[in-house]
Fold this sequence. Notes:
The protein is an alpha+beta fold. Helix content is 33%, strand content 33%.
Amino acid sequence: MMSAYENSNTSGKIFTKGKASGKFTCDRMSVTIKFRQSALSAAKASQAVTNQCERFLQRFAEAGADLAKIQLTEDDISAYHEEEKNAASRTLAFDCEAKADMINLLLKIIQDEYLDADISTRYFLSNEDDLRKSLRAEAVRSSKENAELLAHAAGKEIIGLDAIDMGCSLSSHYKGGDFSLT
Length: 182
């Protein structure tokens, strides 16, 4: 009498999970700089912001920046009724390589020129899609290795593939990303 386990014609299914993850340093950053000024008149506030922005752009160009890549993303003039003042702001934005030297340069220009400016950065990966594809391939290989190990332990072999289900999560960190695929 032969058991189903010993019968070579019996087929079964193995469900395995493959995992892949990696830590990658962000290589690009989006920089936003918002110049702001308040004054008794909207015209004076606007002129002060324009002057700040022009001084910044002049110094940035002198440092070798390509001004054609900088976008003007917002101009705003608002009145403060309580203080009878007007505020103006102008926002510039651009993408560049994620380097500390760039942030240091921007801060130095703002400090040296005594500009009223807020600066914010967002870091990202320029090749995120390629990294995801690589991690998916690694997760599939890991799952296949797990299935082959289980089949070998049971004295069987893998003869086909029915389906692949994938889920992916991404958590970004300051100056880095951690991708995990299961």
